[in-house]
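sry for the spam today, last one i promise. struct tokens for design, 382 residues
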């Protein structure tokens, strides 16, 4: 049915007492309502068209079926008529009588089925007519709804400009809100980082200082060292002024300045070179011992231990199927007394061992041993 009520945008346009801003908002709201109604009517129109097509197909099938049943009925009548014309009254037998009765029953059933099909066909045709009328009505409503916004646009051209300006302002406010959210997230991350580094809120936290605070002692030593260096700088400045004023360099400059002699400097350089050489040799020895220790651990335990970052250790089994199959542990607690297994792609493949040995038994060695046996059995049975 056609809608006779006035749309919402007509009421908005007919009130001249409102400001431009409320008119624009009312017009935009009415436009949204009209668009929603257009979408609903379009959906109903498509649905009605589908129903109409379904009923048309059903009507065609029923017509074909009625035609076939009519032909079958006419054929049965012709057969019965031929029997009646060929046989006389004396030639009828009980078998022919039974067949005649069966044929008459079949004809009656065909008549009943044909009547039923005709009734269904008429009902389908009536529904089809109603669907066509409803589809035409919906098409008229759709055309009217599409023509209504176009009639309102020429009367109020300034409303579109105000709507565009308001939309631009909303987009600008959205960008500002996104920027403020990013800044808020950055500040929260900085606060968390500072909290992890030991920072605190002085207005909420009370700090107790020890009488023999190591920090105070270190600051005192730093002040004494600074004073000593300042005195040394003043003494060297005075010596520099003395050298600039005098034309000759005194022979006892080293004694006056308190600097070491050239022999002492050469001896100190030799000692430094010897210490550096010794340090280099110690590094080489330590490196070889470390490699030897890692090889021994790999041979004895079956796991190669690598330090990825500070406090994180990567374990790779010698029975691993792929090079990327590894476990990553993170040291937690005081001085790394506890280890925590981090999630990796390889650790997700052994949830049963993690549940049993780490969560229930709380034993990392048992977990590593079970994992070694599991990988070894895979290689030997493969």
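last one done:
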């Amino acid at each position: 049915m056609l809608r006779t009520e006035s749309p919402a945008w007509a009421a908005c346009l007919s009130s001249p007492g409102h400001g431009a801003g409320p008119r624009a908002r009312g017009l935009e709201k009415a436009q949204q309502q009209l668009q929603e109604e257009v979408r609903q009517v379009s959906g109903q129109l498509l649905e009605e068209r589908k129903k109409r097509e379904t009923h048309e197909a059903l009507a065609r099938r029923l017509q074909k079926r009625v035609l076939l049943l009519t032909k079958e009925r006419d054929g049965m009548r012709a057969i019965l008529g031929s029997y009646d014309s060929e046989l006389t009254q004396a030639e009828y037998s009980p078998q022919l009588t039974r067949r005649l009765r069966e044929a008459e029953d079949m004809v009656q059933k065909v008549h009943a089925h044909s009547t039923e099909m005709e009734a269904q066909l008429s009902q389908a045709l009536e529904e089809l007519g109603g669907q066509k009328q409803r589809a035409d009505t919906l098409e008229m409503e759709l055309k009217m709804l599409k023509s209504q916004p176009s009639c309102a646009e020429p009367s109020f051209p300034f409303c579109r400009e105000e709507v565009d300006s308001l939309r631009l302002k909303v987009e600008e406010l959205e960008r500002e809100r996104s920027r403020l959210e990013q800044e808020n997230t950055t500040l929260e991350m900085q606060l968390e980082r500072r909290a992890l580094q030991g920072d605190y809120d002085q207005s909420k936290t009370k700090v107790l200082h020890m009488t023999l605070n190591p920090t105070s002692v270190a600051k005192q030593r730093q002040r004494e060292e600074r004073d000593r260096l300042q005195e040394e700088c003043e003494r060297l400045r005075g010596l520099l002024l003395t050298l600039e004023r005098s034309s000759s360099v005194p022979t006892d400059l080293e004694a006056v300045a308190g600097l070491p002699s050239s022999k002492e400097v050469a001896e100190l350089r030799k000692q430094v070179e010897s210490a550096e050489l010794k340090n280099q040799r110690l590094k080489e020895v330590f490196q070889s011992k470390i490699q030897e220790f890692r090889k021994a651990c790999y041979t004895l335990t079956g796991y190669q231990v690598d330090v990825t970052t500070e406090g994180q250790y990567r374990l790779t089994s010698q029975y691993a199927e792929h090079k990327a199959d590894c476990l990553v542990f993170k040291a937690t607690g005081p001085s790394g007394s506890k280890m925590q297994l981090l999630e990796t792609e390889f650790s997700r493949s052994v949830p049963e061992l993690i549940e049993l040995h780490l969560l229930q038994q709380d034993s990392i060695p048992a977990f590593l041993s079970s994992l070694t046996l599991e990988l070894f059995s895979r290689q030997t049975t493969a």
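The first helix runs from residue 8 to 13. ok im logging off now
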